[in-house]
Amino acid sequence: MQSEVDGGFAATNAPWDLVRSIVEAAEDAIFVKDLQGRFIYMNPLGAARVGKTVDEILGRDYTVLFDAETAARLEQADHRILAQGVPERFEESVLLAGELKTFRVVKGPLYGPSGALLGLFGIATDVSCYKRLERDLRATQDLLQHIAEITGKVFWARREPGGTPEYISPSAAKVWGVEEDRIVEDSRSLLNHVVEEDLPALLATVARQRNSTEPTECEFRLRAPDGSIRWLWMRSHCIEDVDGVPRRVGGVTEDITHRKAFEERQRVSTNMEALGRLAGGVAHDFNNLLTIISGYADLLPVTGGAAANAAEEIRRAARRAADLTAQLLAVSRRQIIEPRPLNLNPVVRDMINMLRRLMGEDILVEAHLDPDLPWCLLDRSQAETILLNLAANARDAMPTGGRLTIRTEARGGVVLMVTDTGHGIPEDVRPRVFEPFFTTRGRAGTGLGLAIVHGAVMQAQGRISVDSTLGQGTTFTVSFDASSARPLTDAVPPPMPRSGRGSILVVEADAAVRALGALILANAGYTVRDVPGSTAALEAFSSGQRFDLLVTDLIMQGMSGCQFIEEARRFQPSLKALIVSGCVDEAWTRVDGGDPILQKPFTVESLTSAVRQAM
Length: 615
What we know:
The chain is of the alpha+beta class and 615 residues long. It has helices at 2-11, 16-25, 44-49, 54-57, 68-84, 128-151, 172-176, 180-185, 199-211, 257-299, 305-332, 344-359, 380-397, 449-459, 511-523, 534-542, 561-571, 604-614, and strands spanning 29-34, 39-42, 88-96, 99-111, 117-126, 154-159, 164-168, 216-223, 229-240, 246-255, 340-342, 363-368, 376-378, 402-410, 414-420, 463-469, 473-480, 503-507, 527-531, 549-553, 576-581, 597-599. The longest helix has 43 residues, at 257-299. It is elongated.
């Protein structure tokens, strides 16, 4: 048979020795089988690839290389090829020496010079490594797709030049709001969804991608098919070939709408906190001035006539100024409050007539109160402030009349909703409505109303949100946690003596306020010593002096009033104290001393009454 093969090759015009040298140098397995299925030729490198020598293979069938089942399957395929007389190309996976190998195979009938069928030839190329690479690549793609689905990010790649889409992860449909197939078919159509103002910056970023191997980033807004605006973040990188020619751009796109909203809330919160601290500081100093004005007005020795009228006007002006200070403290969330068990329904009922007068005859005021509304822990004055300012804001939104609806609901707690039928709040204005001094009414507005509401709600550990539609109205929703507590019946305090007895140490940094307080208490019959700060006061205690009551400001240099009280009680453990302050400093919240607090500005009556109760 070998001579027939040699003769067949020699009959052609191709030198057999040249062909043999080429075949034997090939790395593929090249073989010839006779009609009985026996190997009559195998190139050396091919034999080595299947772990045998040529001599071990020649004259044997497939069983020399494979198990009986595999050998029978291969033999069956050979019979089919010989019967049909047509070459076939296919892949075959077989087990060799315990390792699964994949070959790309070409087999066909081998004819002699006379046209007689001599046997079967085959060329088998080992593609196992390529198959492993394909499996690894497929596994990597599946992993990336899984990561993309979990993270919500869009992974993509496009070929350069030309920008033809090469890959885009399925999450693109959710992020862009466009079907994945449409993105691949026409990626430029995505630009039609980009907000017009952001398009130049995005196109400039795309241009930089093609000219730089450094990663590029940009943020832009997208108008989704439902009309909503989304913020997207994109980071991409240009990949060059060995010659430095850009071949591909890959990147990731992420929906950052929620992050942008959080950043905006943080910005508003930071601005409000800064303005709140400013308002608290202004209110503290202003309260000192009001204390002096109202206090000395009370001390004027008048019994009637013009002087008495003048003193009363001074008192009224001081009270109006104190109300303004309370508004500033509400913005700063530093006013003294007394949270008590409260049901909002009676608060609304008590205020409804006043609100109707406030709104005017052209605005209908309705109240729908849930009879099963739970109680909450809330200062009543805070509840009234919230309701009054929301109603005033609604009135400004309905200059030609409308309807104001106040509703309470037991929905996961205590819910208060104030709804108007006004002109609504534009979307770009809505994030700023709670900012202090922000107003859309020009000089007619102070910008404090909704800021006061926000401050009161936050101080009461509540939550507030706004929902508005242009031309249809606005709803402010305020919610508080429900409380199982109920108000206690106030005990009738025992009658207090009108003449004061005992020694009092007054500690106040403001000289005028200190002098006024000392004068009022001295006139009430107490023995009074006043000092400007904690250092002088502690020196008095350390020298052995004892007092029946310590009256101290909350804010002073060197230490807080609460720390000062603790230090003073090291010398006199049973010392009673009364705190007088224009605002509540954070230091007070860290001390659980239970000492009473008197809010500035105080009057002669409020100071003497607080002292009697504290002693």
